[in-house]
Design goal:
With 228 residues, the chain is an all-alpha fold. It has one domain: Orthogonal Bundle (Arp2/3 complex 21 kDa subunit ARPC3), CATH 1.10.1760.20. The chain has 10 helices and no strands.
Length: 228
């Protein structure tokens, strides 16, 4: 399958489409595994990283902000943070997309992805500490903050390996990796229907996004680094 979009408008359309798919991933993954109301497994950054790696930092920033819409609504508007404080979720995810786009020019995805998450991780730590002190001193404990950060790093490490194998076109290895994730998730969470749906949408997001941006590889390298 190949979409016939091109140039800046094509990249912008692809970024927004990937952001929409990232929100769909967030919807499914957060409903699949949620240990606490404010802690849930979130794979929305998969779209952020894919766009940042192939299109550059500014498109990565836009993708990060776009995939944050559902997490913002769930944990901010409808969650404990509220609509104003919850905007920090969008800032953090946009930050990761920007940094990943910069690092991806110099290193492989398996390094660029986890390294780009460090600023967001530190930002999240500072944000949660502030929320703990000023808003939720009883509900947001030190253990909860640790669980949120550890959960985030587990997600990022999984996505870094997925994107590395897809970028290298190691289709068999990617299929095996997704199968392993499926088995592990199924063991942790017994709702097989939701697990299978998450797996299928994950594959859909990866393959569609890579297919969309694949037409730009080796072309318009100047424009791939930002809106120019």
């Amino acid at each position: 399958m190949r979409f016939t979009v091109s140039g800046r408008h094509g990249k912008l359309l692809t970024t927004l489409l990937a952001g929409g798919l990232g929100n769909l991933l967030a919807l499914l993954s957060t409903s699949l595994i949620s240990t606490q109301p404010q802690i849930a497994f979130d794979l929305s950054h998969l779209a952020t990283f894919a766009i940042a790696i192939h299109f550059g930092p500014y498109y990565g920033l836009l993708a990060g902000a776009t995939v944050a819409i559902y997490p913002y609504v769930k944990f901010g508007v409808l969650g404990a943070y509220g609509p104003v404080v919850g905007l920090s979720i969008i800032v953090g995810k946009a930050m990761t997309g920007l940094v990943c786009g910069v690092l991806a020019r110099r290193m492989r995805p398996y390094l660029a992805v986890p390294l780009s998450f460090i600023p967001e991780s530190l930002f999240t730590l500072a944000f949660l500490k502030a929320v703990q002190v000023w808003m939720l001193p009883d509900a947001l404990t030190g253990n909860t903050i640790s669980d949120i950060l550890i959960k985030g790093w587990v997600e990022v490490l999984i996505m870094s390996f997925i994107l590395e194998t897809v970028t290298r076109r190691h289709v068999v290895e990617t299929a095996v990796l997704l199968l392993e994730i499926f088995i592990i998730t199924l063991l942790v969470h017994k709702e097989g229907t939701h697990t299978l749906a998450l797996l299928l949408v994950t594959v859909f997001v990866i393959m569609i996004t890579i297919d969309l941006i694949g037409q730009y590889r080796g072309k318009d390298k100047k424009g791939a680094n930002g809106f120019k």
